[in-house]
Every structure is written in structure tokens, then in C-alpha cells.
Design goal:
This protein is mainly α. 81% of the residues lie in helices and 0% in strands. The protein has four helices and no strands. Helix 2 runs antiparallel to helix 3, helix 2 packs parallel to helix 4 and helix 3 packs antiparallel against helix 4.
């Protein structure tokens, strides 16, 4: 496996590894929800797997938002750069907005 180039590492570092981990975690919840949905009941009782994945995302996004809000406040008080934490505060809302827009295009 090739190592990441210096420019890619600098770009990912500027975006924030924590923010990248949030996006990857969100992407991993999609197959988890599909897997849970496939082994669950079918017919009128279906939907539990997808709902479990959405609830896990809500919990993770809420914790991520609180953690980044605290990091923004701490950074402002200490005079440290807060761009990564601000991106982290906006990221859950951006992912939720993108999900709602995709539901318009591709309803389940």
C-alpha cells in the first residue's frame, strides 16, 4: 500500500482527522443499517434496522457536536486556532442536510 503524499496528509490534517473519522463512521452506519434491515422482520414491521442506524448516528452526532463546541470555546479562551472544531460543529448539520436532500432524490 502506498503511503499518502505530503500534500494529501497536509490537506487531511487541515480538515481534521477527527472530522474525517466522523464522515467515515457515518458511511459505515449505512451498511450496518442495511445489514440489520435484511435480518429483521419484513412487511409492516420492517424498518427497525434503518432506525437503529439513524439513532446511532444521532447519538454519535450529538456527542461529536458537544465535543467540538467545547473545543471551540476552549480554543477561543486560550487563543488557539479553532477552524477544525468549527468545521466539526457544522459537519453533523451538513451531513443531516445532505441526507435529507438525498431522500428527496432517492426516497426509501
Amino acid at each position: 500500500m502506498k503511503r499518502l503524499s505530503a500534500s494529501a496528509v497536509a490537506l487531511l490534517s487541515a480538515f481534521g482527522w477527527r472530522n474525517l473519522a466522523f464522515i467515515i463512521g457515518t458511511m459505515l452506519l449505512i451498511p450496518l443499517g442495511l445489514a440489520l434491515e435484511s435480518i429483521g422482520p419484513h412487511g409492516p414491521d420492517a424498518g427497525g434496522g434503518a432506525m437503529a442506524a439513524v439513532l446511532l448516528w444521532y447519538l454519535g452526532a450529538a456527542l461529536f457536536l458537544v465535543f467540538n463546541a467545547v473545543a471551540v470555546i476552549r480554543g477561543l479562551v486560550r487563543g488557539e486556532p479553532v477552524l477544525k472544531s468549527v468545521i466539526g460543529c457544522v459537519l453533523p448539520f451538513a451531513v443531516a442536510w445532505a441526507f435529507m436532500e438525498l431522500m428527496e432524490i432517492w426516497p426509501i
